[in-house]
Design a protein that fits this description.
The chain is of the alpha/beta class. The protein has one domain: Alpha-Beta Barrel (TIM Barrel). Helices cover 43% and strands 13% of the residues. It is built from 14 helices and twelve strands. The strands form three sheets. Strands 4-11-10-9-8-7-6-5 form an eight-stranded parallel beta sheet. The protein has a two-stranded antiparallel sheet with strand order 1-12. The chain has a two-stranded antiparallel sheet with strand order 2-3. Helix 2 packs parallel to helix 4.
Length: 346
Amino acid sequence: MTSKKTVQRKKEHIELCLTDNVVFKTKTNGFENYEFEHYAITEIEFEKLDLTTKFFGKKISLPFLISSMTGGTFEAERINEKLAIVANILNIPIGVGSQRQALEDNTHHSTYKVVRKNAGSVPILGNIGASQVIKSKDLVGDFERLIDLIEANALIIHVNILQELLQPEGEPNFKGLLKKLGKAIPRLKTPIVVKEVGSGISKKAAKRLLEIGVKGIDVAGSGGTSWAAVELLRNHRENKYLSEWGLPTSYCIRTVKELKRDYDFTLIGSGGIMNGVDTAKALALGSDITASARIILQEVTKNEVESVIKLINNWFLTVKQIMLLTGCDNMKKFKAGVLKRNEEFI
């Protein structure tokens, strides 16, 4: 795959994700199956609620990640610059889109470097696909180049087998992925996060990843962007079954969280996080932080930096309001059973 083709594909991805044509049509994130238990005699002092937390050793002000979106095109540079400014102002982490193009040549390195330039000292997550892991002849060296390019605090490996399967130029062969990662991870100082792109990570898959030393799981379940739908639309094809393929985000968070009894890792809840209620439910189900991409991309493209800051702050105002109404003054209490299945209220 040449760099020119990679750049064109990334440009097409941005254009499609600015529309609402790429969302799941029938499958949801599953959060509608849960409701919070109201606590009528709450004594929580709203103004004292503090959502600061640690993310890979760095203090952040909100448990939220501006999820990986783009890079490697001229269009991406301005988008990444604005998103990095948002991250810096809010003191929250930010992920970059796939750095595959950065391994192919240095033409668009500035579209990635602009993130650290504008994000200050907030955590930044690099990003490369599983197919590039498989093909790499010097995996540790490639990882270190991508990390150094943006001074990354962690590196995301995105596993997108369905997207690769439906891409005409895709590479749906991940044979040897765990073995290669298992050998590379102990040689790296930077933690590795594994992220899906809309089909979700199951407890079974997460356990295998944690066993080889992965330090972060971003479940990226169904309910938001369907990258199967992106590729199908991009290539004027249709597959109603596979465009809705995936595990609901709520299911992934709830089940992967159970692994925290045996493993020390960061659980990122993403996939259809569209508002403050989704954010609150993802946290209450067990996420350490939540993440969102497409709605943030749309907002920053239409309404600039200030609007994105307002959007995220409003989401976490809702989170705090729900914490007050459920009698929780910290996240530990918030995750201790205040979110119930709907049938429990019958």
